[in-house]
Write a structure and sequence with these properties.
This protein is of the alpha+beta class. Helices cover 22% and strands 14% of the residues.
């Protein structure tokens, strides 16, 4: 157990928020000292976290530390949970996306995309402004690449 987390969400990954930002360094040291014991594959904090998420100092939705466990490790107090899906493992983050829009020509696009691009793409396909979503405005999310819709 870490000394001063404000909130911890544990499951197929562990998300840790702190009340006091200085506690992040202390908890990070504890986690790094226990990589093998805790089955930790990777820790996202500081600069490594900001490469893939918003800065936790500027966005309270972003945890201060994210712990990616080794494949097959689940952090839970439940005695009935035996499996999980979704997380940061390669099989979870590299998945195919199939979009069907009959008015658009068929093609294969081999660009990395993110699931957060799906909602703005659907809005665009419906002729609605994706920028009407607050998350799109804040995160500057784009529609999926290579798609064109009749009203565009």
């Amino acid at each position: 157990m870490l000394p001063d987390p404000a909130f911890v969400q544990e499951d197929d990954i562990s998300l840790i928020w702190h009340r006091d930002p200085t506690a992040t360094a202390l908890d990070l040291g504890i986690l790094e000292a226990n990589l093998v014991t805790a089955g930790i594959q990777k820790i996202f904090a500081g600069d490594s976290l900001k490469l893939v998420f918003n800065d936790p100092a500027l966005d309270s939705r972003t945890p201060d530390i994210i712990v990616q466990p080794e494949l097959g490790v689940i952090y839970t107090g439940s005695t009935s949970k035996i499996a999980e899906h979704g997380g940061f493992s390669e099989d979870d983050i590299h998945v195919g996306l199939l979009v069907s829009f009959p008015q658009s020509p068929a093609r294969v696009i081999k660009s990395p995309v993110e699931t957060m691009q799906v909602a703005p793409t659907i809005l665009s396909a419906l002729g609605l402004d994706p920028k009407s979503l607050q998350a799109v405005q804040i995160e500057k999310t784009t529609v999926l690449p290579g798609l064109s819709f009749p009203q565009d």
